[in-house]
């Protein structure tokens, strides 16, 4: 098997709201817009995102309720944190340093999709 591309499909109540969030704050662009979905991409190594409108007629309780966190490894996270704060992005976990050697922050889009941005750094020595 040779995987040539990857995408994560996120089922949300309002794909347009999520698209605005990802395009405004995280540098994605809309590559395909359909009646019930919006596909987003970037020109770097980020995974493509497909925002699919939740179909309440087909959805059943307990189906697809696993917690999903979209994680992007980035560079220059401290500067990105300040930029996102100044843009008014919803920051649910402020920038912090983890003992195992990682800077981490978390955003939440208007549909409740959690996005973690991480950057590898030196571990905290004891």
Walk me through this protein's architecture.
The strands form 2 sheets. A 4-stranded mixed β-sheet has the order 1-4-3-2, with helices on one face. A 4-stranded mixed β-sheet has the order 5-8-7-6. It has 126 residues and is of the alpha/beta class. It has 2 helices and 8 strands. It is 17% helix and 39% strand.
Question: Can you give keywords for this protein?
Answer:
126 residues, alpha/beta, four-stranded mixed β-sheet, 2 helices, 39% strand
Quick description:
This protein is 17% helix and 39% strand.
Specify the structural class. alpha/beta
Question: What is the rounded Rg?
Answer: 16 Å
Low-pLDDT segments: none
Write the element-wise H/E pattern from the N-terminal end onward: EHEEEEHEEE
Main sheet, how many strands, which sense, barrel? Answer: 4 strands, mixed
Q: Strand content of the residues, in percent?
A: 35-45%
Q: Assign a percent range to the helix content.
A: 10-25%
How far from one another are the termini?
44 Å
Q: Give the strand line-up of the largest sheet.
A: 1-4-3-2
Mean pLDDT: 86
> DSSP helix count?
2
- The tally of strands reads 8
How would you sum up the global shape?
globular
């Amino acid at each position: 098997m040779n995987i040539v591309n990857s995408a994560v499909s996120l089922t949300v109540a309002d794909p347009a709201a999520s698209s605005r969030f990802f395009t405004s704050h995280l540098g994605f662009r809309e590559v395909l817009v359909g009646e019930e979905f919006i596909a987003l991409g970037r020109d770097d190594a980020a995974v493509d995102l497909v925002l699919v409108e939740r179909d309440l007629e087909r959805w059943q309780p307990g189906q697809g309720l696993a917690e999903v966190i979209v994680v992007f490894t980035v560079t220059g996270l401290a500067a990105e944190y300040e930029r996102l704060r100044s843009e008014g992005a919803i920051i649910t976990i402020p920038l912090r340093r983890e003992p195992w050697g990682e800077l981490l922050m978390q955003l939440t889009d208007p549909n409740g999709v959690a996005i973690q941005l991480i950057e590898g750094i030196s571990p905290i020595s004891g």
